[in-house]
């Protein structure tokens, strides 16, 4: 059986320290604003702090998926070393990244018939995707085969829950996630939308909360109500430069449930462009997505 490499993209929003520790290969999305194009590469080319400060100062970024060439070059390096590839990919409901990867996969497998590139769309993004990468690496270290890991995620990804709230509705409006009228009314009434990633991997409106404190409490309630086997899993929390609120969310959750670990990190530019400063999201394994 050929060895294999776990691969991902920068939408996974993992801490750069973890990426380096695991020697994790990834494809980079890009973010362009104020006449400058940056790589979304876990805060190396563009610091998360600078990105969110720029958004607060009026920057209007555009994001782009990785090119076919980026995937081809990185896939080629891995298969040339004699390894297959398991790519944990951002949701096709949120990004066209898988399209580029699929074209590169076809090129690689045609040139290298002995090599296999598995693409697993986990139907989420940010640290939801990131905790899947962590799980995949753990399973590989436990001796699981590439097929066993791919099959695991295909059979369990609908249990991966993703819930979010945002502080500024204008970013959702600009990204086409919310109508102008709804955004204006929400801003006037201080309404914070509660969002989720649905079973198709797309952003959906779950409800609303009156004020920031209520929205954070609602996120915690969703975790407490829906999480399953918490002691066996990592809970992911991502934030748009609002670490104090991320820590508060963690505190509220841990008062009711005990998890194996909690990973907190910034939302990167590719995802943060739509969530804006103050976005807050939580990711965990629990009840089926359609069961809400």
From TrEMBL:
Pfam families: DegV (PF02645). The keyword Transcription does not apply. It comes from the Bacteria. InterPro entries: DegV, DegV_C, DegV_domain_contain. Keywords: Lipid-binding. The keyword RNA-binding does not apply. May bind long-chain fatty acids, such as palmitate, and may play a role in lipid transport or fatty acid metabolism. This is DegV family protein. It comes from Clostridium malenominatum.
